[in-house]
């Protein structure tokens, strides 16, 4: 009986861990009309995102729960493709590899790190286009973690689309 009372007190006092379920919500943005065929490889993510966690870098590094609604590689790949399709009106953007067809450009996005430090979210990423690699470091203030991740991803997707625009002619 005593254990039940303690468990109930912990639950209502906020000591129980809260799980966050995240689905990317990146507002779309248009740029220009292009006649390109772009293949987008799977977005790579750090292992800890696959384990439903985000790193917190303080005096002692630790993790907090942060769970995607679906596999983060799949949801981020879909979101990136959708963003590029809207950004480049008239371009053919597809998930690479596919059966048949040639690409004018192949891109691979990797989230190298996603962490919290001193009240800000940091997203470190790289983008490979035609054997060239661009690196990105994005910092966002945290009001809520999902909103900060959305803002950071939007900035990443815009910068990545601009790099694709410069490199894929």
3D structure, described in words:
- This protein is of the alpha/beta class.
- The chain has a single domain, classed as ABC-type transport auxiliary lipoprotein component (Rossmann fold).
- Helices cover 32% and strands 34% of the residues.
- The protein has helices at 2-12, 47-50, 72-87, 145-167, and strands at residues 21-22, 32-33, 37-40, 53-56, 62-65, 67-68, 88-89, 92-95, 105-117, 120-129, 132-141.
- Strands 3, 4, 5, 8, 9, 10 and 11 form a seven-stranded mixed sheet that branches. Strands 1-6 form a two-stranded parallel sheet.
- A hairpin with a 5-residue loop joins strand 4 and strand 5.
- The longest helix has 23 residues, at 145-167.
- The protein is elongated.
- The N and C termini lie far apart (71 Å).
- Residues 1-18 have low confidence and may be disordered.
Keywords:
single chain, 169 residues, Rossmann fold, seven-stranded mixed sheet, two-stranded parallel sheet, 32% helix
């Amino acid at each position: 009986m005593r254990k039940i009372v303690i468990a109930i007190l912990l639950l209502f006092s906020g000591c129980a861990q809260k799980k966050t379920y995240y689905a990317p919500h990146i507002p779309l943005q248009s740029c220009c009309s292009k006649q390109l065929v772009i293949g987008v490889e799977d977005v790579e993510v750090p292992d800890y995102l696959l384990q439903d966690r985000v790193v917190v870098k303080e005096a002692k590094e630790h993790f907090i729960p942060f769970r995607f609604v679906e596999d983060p590689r799949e949801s981020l790949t879909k979101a990136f493709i959708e963003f590029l399709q809207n950004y480049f009106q008239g371009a053919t953007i597809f998930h690479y590899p596919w059966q048949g067809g040639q690409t004018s450009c192949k891109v691979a996005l990797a989230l190298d790190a996603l962490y919290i430090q001193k009240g800000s979210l940091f997203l470190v990423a790289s983008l490979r286009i035609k054997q060239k690699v661009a690196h990105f470091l994005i910092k966002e203030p945290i009001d809520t973690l999902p909103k900060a991740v959305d803002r950071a991803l939007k900035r990443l997707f815009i910068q990545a689309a601009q790099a694709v625009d410069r490199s894929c002619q």
